Amino acid sequence: MHFIVENMHCEGCAKGVTAAVKQADPSAQVEVRLEDRSISVNGGRLGGEALRSALQDAGWKAAATPS
User: Fold this and answer.
1) Which of 19, 46, 57, 64 would give a disulfide with 25, using CB separation of 3.0 to 4.6 Å?
2) What crossing angle do the helices spanning 11-24 and 48-57 adopt, rounded to 10°?
């Protein structure tokens, strides 16, 4: 699953986004790309909408993108 996280700007943000995903789904693997404000999530148990919701609840403006 791929997401654009509009308000992710720095390494601190990347750590916060990763923590939000891992809190919602500890088995997920998160790859962050700051240059285009995107993340890829693999190997987790939650679906895209559940992860997007978890990110939104943590204060991140996330939108799913096509794979």
Assistant:
1) 46
2) 120
Pairing verdict, β 38-42 and 62-65: unpaired
Q: For residue 66, what are its two tokens?
A: 């096509």
- Shortest CA distance to 29 belongs to which of 12, 61, 51, 49? 51
Q: Give the model confidence (pLDDT) of 9-61 as tens digits.
A: 999 999 999 999 999 999 999 999 999 999 999 999 999 999 999 999 999 99
Amino acid at 6: E
Exposed, middle or buried: residue 42 (CB in 10 Å: 0-12, 13-18, 19+)?
exposed
With H, G, I as helix, E, B as strand and everything else as coil, classify residue 40: strand
Under 8 Å between Cβ of 20 and 60: yes
